[in-house]
Automatic annotation (TrEMBL):
<dbReference type="InterPro" id="IPR029442">
    <property type="entry name" value="GyrI-like"/>
</dbReference>
<protein>
    <submittedName>
        <fullName>Effector-binding domain-containing protein</fullName>
    </submittedName>
</protein>
<dbReference type="Pfam" id="PF06445">
    <property type="entry name" value="GyrI-like"/>
</dbReference>
<dbReference type="InterPro" id="IPR011256">
    <property type="entry name" value="Reg_factor_effector_dom_sf"/>
</dbReference>
<feature type="domain" description="GyrI-like small molecule binding">
    <location>
        <begin position="8"/>
        <end position="161"/>
    </location>
</feature>
């Protein structure tokens, strides 16, 4: 894994999104992500919706069970959506974040350990399905349509911090 930037605490504004949310087992989750990403690209292109980075959001994490995930894209304006593509937001706030290339699992571990070592708390609550995050995502800074090699993607990993987290 190569860390390109961070880890750091960053402040993010609220951002409009369009996404497809689903429940999937951890095992095979990234194949589901890839299928949903292709579907999202096709639908947004058909609608003529311009969009920024595509992201993979983890709403509820349960690595031994079902994961509640979303594949989405940042949009300049709210989208109307339909039965499949839903409008949403990435909430404003303070995030622990880093940008990396390759080895997402190690990047997640690095960011989580970094935040823990600094006494930072994530905006996370117990959920019947696992750990429910207010906002935890990977934004693909490299366009997956132009670079098919996932090991070359620049990825921003960000986890929203609880309001009470002290500034490091």
């Amino acid at each position: 894994m190569e860390i390109v930037e961070g880890p750091a605490v960053v402040t993010k504004p609220e951002r409009h999104t369009a996404g497809i949310r689903t429940i999937t087992p951890f095992r095979g989750m990234f194949a589901v992500r890839d299928r949903l990403m292709d579907e999202l690209f096709e639908r947004l292109d058909d609608w003529g919706v311009g969009f920024g980075p595509v992201f993979f959001r983890l709403h509820v994490v349960n690595m031994q069970g079902a994961m509640d995930v979303e594949v989405g894209a940042v949009t300049a304006e709210p989208v109307r959506g339909d039965d499949r593509i839903r409008p949403g937001i990435l909430p404003a706030g303070r995030y622990a974040a880093l940008t990396y290339v390759n080895h997402g699992r190690r990047a997640n571990g690095t960011l989580i350990d970094w935040a823990h070592d600094r006494g930072l708390s994530f905006d996370c609550a117990e959920d019947p399905g696992g750990d429910g995050f207010a906002c935890r995502y990977e934004a693909y800074l490299t366009d997956p349509r132009t670079e098919r090699m996932k090991t070359r993607w620049r990825i921003e990993l960000a986890i929203r911090l609880a309001d009470g987290s002290r500034q490091p």
